[in-house]
TrEMBL record:
One of its GO terms (molecular function) is glycylpeptide N-tetradecanoyltransferase activity. It catalyses: N-terminal glycyl-[protein] + tetradecanoyl-CoA = N-tetradecanoylglycyl-[protein] + CoA + H(+). Keywords: Acyltransferase, Transferase. It comes from Ladona fulva (Scarce chaser dragonfly). Adds a myristoyl group to the N-terminal glycine residue of certain cellular proteins. Belongs to the NMT family. Gene3D superfamilies: 3.40.630.170. It comes from the Eukaryota. It is an enzyme of class 2 (transferase). Pfam families: NMT_C. GO terms for cellular component: cytoplasm. This is Glycylpeptide N-tetradecanoyltransferase.
Amino acid sequence: MFPNLLSLNVSPNIHLTEFCFLYFSDFVSFYTLPSTVMHHPVHKSLKAAYSFYNVSTKTPWIELMGDALVSAKNSGFDVFNALDLMENKKFLEPLKFGIGDGYLQYYLYNWRCPSMPPNRIGLVLQ
């Protein structure tokens, strides 16, 4: 797999409409960024997957993201990261995701926005 490549896993629920438009009911995607392990005698790098865009309309979130974890593991990833945003709360705790050690803070120039809970946020910066 190439660095920074986006992986997309599509649910088997694929439908054709009467006008022959193809649509998917569910999908997950994740990307990778290179990470260097410093001062370790054996391990020099860490292959981390970062959850990107995910849609669940038929498959339950826990099943869909569980499949993403298996796919990432089978692709050689060491860790799978997901932010607490949008509907991610539905799978973070049940799939035993650990809470990070800090908060991500983004400054969006000239945007006024009140504080909001994570399930109302859909911004992912790479």
